[in-house]
TrEMBL record:
<feature type="region of interest" description="Disordered">
    <location>
        <begin position="631"/>
        <end position="742"/>
    </location>
</feature>
<protein>
    <recommendedName>
        <fullName>60 kDa heat shock protein, mitochondrial</fullName>
        <ecNumber>5.6.1.7</ecNumber>
    </recommendedName>
</protein>
<dbReference type="InterPro" id="IPR027410">
    <property type="entry name" value="TCP-1-like_intermed_sf"/>
</dbReference>
<dbReference type="GO" id="GO:0005832">
    <property type="term" value="C:chaperonin-containing T-complex"/>
</dbReference>
<dbReference type="Pfam" id="PF00118">
    <property type="entry name" value="Cpn60_TCP1"/>
</dbReference>
<dbReference type="GO" id="GO:0042026">
    <property type="term" value="P:protein refolding"/>
</dbReference>
<feature type="compositionally biased region" description="Low complexity">
    <location>
        <begin position="657"/>
        <end position="667"/>
    </location>
</feature>
<comment type="function">
    <text>Chaperonin implicated in mitochondrial protein import and macromolecular assembly. Together with Hsp10, facilitates the correct folding of imported proteins. May also prevent misfolding and promote the refolding and proper assembly of unfolded polypeptides generated under stress conditions in the mitochondrial matrix. The functional units of these chaperonins consist of heptameric rings of the large subunit Hsp60, which function as a back-to-back double ring.</text>
</comment>
<dbReference type="InterPro" id="IPR002423">
    <property type="entry name" value="Cpn60/GroEL/TCP-1"/>
</dbReference>
<feature type="compositionally biased region" description="Pro residues">
    <location>
        <begin position="705"/>
        <end position="716"/>
    </location>
</feature>
<keyword id="KW-0143">Chaperone</keyword>
<comment type="subunit">
    <text>Homoheptamer arranged in a ring structure. The functional units of these chaperonins consist of heptameric rings of the large subunit Hsp60, which function as a back-to-back double ring. Interacts with 2 heptameric Hsp10 rings to form the symmetrical football complex. Interacts with HRAS. Interacts with ATAD3A. Interacts with ETFBKMT and EEF1AKMT3. Interacts with MFHAS1.</text>
</comment>
<dbReference type="InterPro" id="IPR018370">
    <property type="entry name" value="Chaperonin_Cpn60_CS"/>
</dbReference>
<keyword id="KW-0496">Mitochondrion</keyword>
<dbReference type="GO" id="GO:0005759">
    <property type="term" value="C:mitochondrial matrix"/>
</dbReference>
<dbReference type="GO" id="GO:0140662">
    <property type="term" value="F:ATP-dependent protein folding chaperone"/>
</dbReference>
<dbReference type="InterPro" id="IPR027413">
    <property type="entry name" value="GROEL-like_equatorial_sf"/>
</dbReference>
Length: 742
């Protein structure tokens, strides 16, 4: 029976001992001044070095270990930056600040993250160095902003518009690290779906890259039953000038589908049913009419799930001029369907995998209104998944969707190529939007002379302008370094040449960058120039003077707790784990004072209960105490009473603390006097407890007594050992459990 007062008496001291440790678990570590900046800069350098090696046509790839699957091989800067998580918490803070800059650039422009990362490292390093020497950080930042404004104005002067497919292909090729095949396929996709058309990138099933144009309402759902096939060529169902029934609900009953079949049959029109599902009697009647009567009908499951399914059905209804049955807020029932409730399309093609509705006969004004609604949702949506789905819906209502299927010999190759295709696609869109400038870092080098015309208000502002001057050389130097040449010499030659001459890292020669097609989108260059000083993290770092501090959570761990006597509460607390098997009660204890995983097992509180058998396990991670449960039929009344002598039991578990105190009292330990939890009894020579006679029994000793085990010889009758069974003596007639017998 559970004794609540006893439980409360045990929990109260444990709670008092645990309270200070809970406070320590939420402690923080704080660092100030130069030490904090130095640790953060180490993290910035580690991340920037990993990202910088991917820059340029001869940049290296980075292999990223993943928690599942094969390692990821990529040259995408933002992918490398996101994958870095340093073990040192102070260094990791610096790395996270640069990750924020790369993410902001990627979200706004879609590319340019590698250049943004190396620029952020340069600004932070130069700025920290000047601030540590006593410069005013606020004035330095003002000088940086003056220089950035001048650079952006100069970039807009250099920008040239992109109009021809050849220029689009050049931009895509450069962004794909010189892969002309990717550049050409992106140019073809934009030519077919328009500059603002939707272009998606997916894994291909062949070794080559492929371009697929999806026109009008195409979705990845096929016919429910192959009995709807009406042509032997291609195993598909084709209709001309068909009716479309749209339903959000499942169609199962015959009564709900018969009115629609009668309308289609009366007007001699094929019928396409798009619903959540069609099964039961409804599917049977459709198949029967298709086979026996020759009715032209096909049933298709609606695409998507949840709200996305509802939105797509609504788009289909607007594009075809019909209505959605079962829609919330409308009282349309399938039994009350009228001809004007059905959508109308000029052509329908349904295969086992997908369906296509062509030449929808919806109202043009309603379609345009729906397109504007989707565009407004795109502008306010933050989720990338929602943006992708909205873009697909927008394309299906307008010009269609272009799908770039990336091929390769392995998953690793396909994933690496997909990253480059995505970057090239974003670069192409940005180039069409704002134009192009010289690539290879030459556009930033051409902006350096424009900084000489700025008049700073003080020396600290001049220092900020000089920081930007040195930073603008970093991208070209990094590209040259990755190509295996000295960056400073390359920059000197570029500065001496004309405005359109730069260094071709692939050929290792100085060429006309425009003629060779080495160009960058103006939006990319402008974005990562604006992102550096305006980023919230970089702004705070450049605007903060001594003292500078970092606060991180402390790595304090809570101790383990044992419910037992009160005398050990100020010591490192061990852990009790209890288990139960048929015929045996067992309790495992181990000490966690030094190392909870690697410390040697140490018994803190031996169980002093009659009938317990101590079975050491050598190097096992715990010491086991096993209590035998003996059937009443195998012992007498006196034996049974003493077998239950160990003391109170709580919910099937022995209360070790009370049992130990009861054993001490029975052995005459002096009541509340300190002493061993279970004193070893003395035995005369020749008794089976000889091992216990040699055990250390000094006060305060915690070594467990050597209790007689299953192999101990039975003492002869009449000897001094034949006393009534005490706390540490063997009960006559009590046999050990079968698992312990030899």
């Amino acid at each position: 029976m559970l004794r609540l007062p006893a439980v409360l008496r045990q929990i109260r001291p444990v709670s008092r001992a645990l309270a200070p440790h809970l406070t320590q678990a939420y402690a923080k570590d704080v660092k100030f001044g130069a030490d904090a900046r130095a640790l953060m800069l180490q993290g910035v350098d580690l991340l920037a070095d990993a990202v910088a090696i991917t820059m340029g046509p001869k940049g290296r790839t980075v292999i990223i270990e993943q928690s599942w699957g094969s390692p990821k091989v990529t040259k995408d800067g933002v992918t490398v930056a996101k994958s870095i998580d340093l073990k040192d918490k102070y260094k990791n803070i610096g790395a996270k600040l640069v990750q924020d800059v790369a993410n902001n650039t990627n979200e706004e422009a879609g590319n340019g993250t590698t250049t943004a990362t190396v620029l952020a490292r340069s600004i932070a390093k130069e700025g920290f160095e000047k601030i540590s020497k006593g410069a005013n950080p606020v004035e330095i930042r003002r000088g940086v902003m003056l220089a950035v404004d001048a650079v952006i104005a100069e970039l807009k002067k250099q920008s040239k518009p992109v109009t021809t497919p050849e220029e689009i292909a050049q931009v895509a090729t450069i962004s794909a690290n010189g892969d002309k095949e990717i550049g050409n396929i992106i140019s073809d996709a934009m030519k077919k779906v328009g500059i603002k058309g939707v272009i998606t990138v997916k894994d291909g099933k062949t070794l080559n890259d492929e371009l697929e144009i999806i026109e009008s309402m195409k979705f990845d759902r096929g016919y429910i039953s192959p009995y709807f096939i009406n042509t032997s060529k291609g195993q598909k169902c084709e209709f001309q000038d068909a009716y479309v029934l749209l339903s959000e609900k499942k169609i199962s009953s015959v009564q709900s589908i018969v009115p629609t079949l009668e309308i289609a049959n009366a007007h001699h029109k094929p019928l396409v049913i798009i619903a959540e599902d069609v099964d039961g009697e409804a599917l049977s009647i459709l198949v029967l009419n298709r086979l026996k009567v020759g009715l032209q009908v096909v049933a298709v499951k609606a695409p998507g799930f949840g709200d996305n399914r509802k939105n797509q059905l609504k788009d289909m209804a607007i594009a075809t001029g019909g209505a959605v049955f079962g829609e919330e807020g409308l009282t349309l029932n399938l039994e009350d369907v009228q001809p004007h409730d059905l959508g109308k399309v000029g052509e329908v093609i349904v295969t086992k995998d997908d369906a296509m509705l062509l030449k929808g006969k919806g109202d043009k004004a309603q379609i345009e209104k729906r397109i504007q609604e989707i565009i407004e949702q795109l502008d306010i949506t933050i989720s990338e998944y929602e943006k992708e789905k909205l873009s697909e819906r927008l394309a299906k209502l307008s010009d269609g969707v272009a799908v770039l299927k990336v091929g390769g010999t392995s998953d690793v190759e396909v994933n690496e190529k997909k990253d480059r295709v995505t970057d090239a696609l974003n670069a192409t869109r940005a180039a069409v939007e704002e134009g192009i400038v010289l690539g290879g870092g030459c556009a930033l080098l051409c902006c350096i002379p424009a900084l000489d015309s700025i008049t700073p208000a003080n020396e600290d502002q001049k220092t900020g302008i000089e920081i930007i001057k040195r930073t603008l050389k970093i991208p070209a130097m990094t590209i040259a370094k990755n190509a295996g040449v000295e960056g400073s010499l390359i920059i000197e030659k570029i500065m001496q040449c004309s405005s359109e001459v730069g260094y071709d890292a692939m050929l290792g020669d100085f060429v006309n960058m425009v003629e060779k097609g080495i160009i960058d989108p103006t939006k990319f260059v402008r974005t990562f120039c604006e992102t550096q000083p305006q980023s919230s993290h970089v702004h705070v770092l450049l605007s903060s003077k001594q003292p500078f501090g970092i606060v991180i959570p402390s790595s304090t761990s809570l101790p383990s707790v044992v419910l037992g006597s009160n005398e050990n509460l100020l010591e490192p607390l061990p852990t009790i784990r209890t288990g139960r098997t048929p015929g045996i009660r067992r309790c495992a204890l181990w000490n966690q004072s030094d190392s909870p995983r690697h410390s040697k097992p140490s018994l803190e509180q031996p169980a002093a209960t009659t009938g317990l058998v101590h079975t050491p396990r050598g190097d096992a991670p715990f010491e086991r105490w096993e209590a035998a449960r003996v059937p009443r039929s195998r012992r007498g009344k006196l034996c049974h009473r003493r077998a239950r002598q160990p003391g109170p039991r709580m919910n099937g578990k022995f209360n070790l603390a009370r049992s130990a105190r009861a054993a001490n009292d029975a052995a005459g330990s002096g009541g509340g006097q300190p002493g061993p939890l279970l004193p070893a009894p003395s035995h005369p020579p020749g008794c089976g407890g000889g091992a216990a006679a040699t055990a250390d029994s000094t006060p305060g000793s915690r070594a467990p007594p050597s209790l007689p085990g299953p192999s101990a010889p039975r003492p002869p009758s009449g000897s001094q050992c034949a006393d009534p069974p005490g706390p540490a003596a063997r009960i006559p007639g009590l046999r050990p459990p079968r698992s312990l017998r030899k």
